[in-house]
Design a protein that fits this description.
The complex is a heterodimer of chains A (139) and B (85). Chain A has 139 residues and is mostly beta strands. Chain A contains two helices and six strands, in the order αββαββββ. Classes of the chains: A mainly beta (139), B mainly alpha (85).
Amino acid sequence: MTAPPADIPAHLPHRYPFLLVDRVLEREPGVRVVAEKLVTFGEPYLQGHFEDRPLVPGVLLLEMLAQAGGFLEAEPLRGAAIFLAGVQDARFKGPALPGDRLRLEVRADGAFAGMMKIRGTVSCDGRDLCTAALLVKRL
Amino acid sequence: MSDLKLRVKEMIIERLKLEGMTPDQIDDGAPLFGEGLGLDSIDALELVLGIEQVFSVKIEDEAAGLKAFKSVQALTDFIAEHAKA
């Protein structure tokens, strides 16, 4: 079952400066999500990371995958309905830079007793920048 | 030790990265969670995924998990009972 791309602020509780998904391209709840984050020089964290060489912190790439993973849920998330419980096998393969259109691809690996494992990749122009498995817990 | 029980213990050690532990150090009757091996809810999901991958047995819900994760012996019995012939 494919769901239409979601209204992002209606689905995720995150807000500026921490809403890190700009567009949902494909969405199959419980199975797979493809979303995008567009990086600009205006990102608040790039002011200090780093002044001479702006690049998106790796932990924020993981957060982007986690937020994209929120769209695996069929229903909108209210408040802190889901939290990050673990990160496994994270690999950072290249920098994400201002101007990049980041493709966030996540797939559900399995779930048990409110805990879900998702595998995700952040890529740009076909190059993988980050891959990781995330464990998320539903409250 | 039965062949299946040994494979169950090897799967637990590999999947949960219990480095340095050998199958004969895992007590057949000790609970997997809380006391005993002291596993947590992330480990539970890893085990569910591992059991599905290695033995093609699905643990559908928490009720089934409660039964299967009582001990290594209980898990071995659960897998033997539900594995496709």
